[in-house]
Amino acid sequence: xxxxxxxxxxxxxxxxxxxxxxxxxxxxxxxxxxxxxxxxxxxxxxxxxxxxxxxxxxxxxxxxxxxxxxxxxxxxxxxxxxxxxxxxxxxxxxxxxxxxxxxxxxxxxxxxxxxxxxxxxxxxxxxxxxxxxxxxxxxxxxxxxxxxxxxxxxxxxxxxxxxxxxxxxxxxxxxxxxxxxxxxxxxxxxxxxxxxxxxxxxxxxxxxxxxxxxxxxxxxxxxxxxxxxxxxxxxxxxxxxxxxxxxxxxxxxxxxxxxxxxxxxxxxxxxxxxxxxxxxxxxxxxxxxxxxxxxxxxxxxxxxxxxxxxxxxxxxxxxxxxxxxxxxxxxxxxxxxxxxxxxxxxxxxxxxxxxxxxxxxxxxxxxxxxxxxxxxxxxxxxxxxxxxxxxxxxxxxxxxxxxxxxxxxxxxxxxxxxxxxx
Length: 422
What we know:
Layout: H1 11-15, H2 22-35, H3 50-57, H4 71-77, E1 85-90, E2 93-94, E3 106-109, H5 128-136, E4 141-145, E5 155-161, E6 168-169, E7 172-177, E8 182-191, E9 198-207, E10 212-220, E11 226-235, E12 240-249, E13 252-261, E14 267-276, E15 281-290, E16 296-305, E17 310-319, E18 326-336, E19 342-351, E20 356-365, H6 369-376, H7 382-398, H8 404-418
Parallel strand pairs: 1-5, 4-7, 5-8, 6-9, 7-9, 8-10, 9-11, 10-12, 11-13, 12-14, 13-15, 14-16, 15-17, 16-18, 17-19, 18-20
Antiparallel strand pairs: 1-2, 3-4
Helix pairs in contact: 2-5, 6-7, 7-8
């Protein structure tokens, strides 16, 4: 068992936790101590030895210190063409003075909402990192979209991270979207520096009946940053939740994304690109739980791996016995650009119903040499031809982003990385 399972390792972090949400924090603490951080042979972390990584890089597990973010930094950090509202964070702490006052949207500190059932969606007993966050998060934000509200402009959750070596940042968000409401969130983190810090993030999303929620994430952390995120949502009758996760950088990144389809005619969509090089390690663990008849899920993740990078994909679809008439699709495709790059992929289906349409699959390969030759024969040099083919491979996921300015920004980042621009 890892030495990180010892309680005293986290004493500074736990001692610094506020005293509110006492029962919630107690449950988180008990769940964390019962699980400990994942051991080497833990099935859910089989290819991602994050406990060892934390032992090597995080010394004291104390909360990251606050720092000043200026309006000029915020302005210069917003991607070109963005038209929407801003919620700004520094080391996980909400900065209302730099954030927009958004009409038809309630935004408040979690500490001002003692009635919240934190951990009722992202349950602490399911993951040690979710439990650790629940036990020791300092504060977070509550976002509520009223019934029938149509938030036409996207909301950018802009997080600045600047921590000393070995410190911990623990963002916590509760998002509640009312019946027949619609909203789009763009979740972007910006690293200010290359120290080795740990981000442990939890986002709980409660979608109402016939709600429409888009959640886009851009992970481009510093090269030494370690990150674990737990994002989980309950999707009600006739509701639709769509996510796109783009991972470009970091030391070790683990994304847990869980969708609970708990209403008929609900729909969950999960798309992702991991475009990584160097020694970056990105692990996407997804879970779709079909509990009710007449629901649909779609999942497509694509990986492009160079140098000594490592990708992991583990997607699970559960179709419960009562979930007849389920449609579920899952696919993971990867291209390896180096003999030293590694990908471990494990799509999974567990079906207890008999009247369903489900499929899953994965591929791991290299670039199509015939297509590469075809482009070169038409005057395109080899590096650019290679970039164009890779960009076309990634494009199927990028087109799922419905906010044009954000899609163009991600498009530009990926083209720069691939060298596919003319």
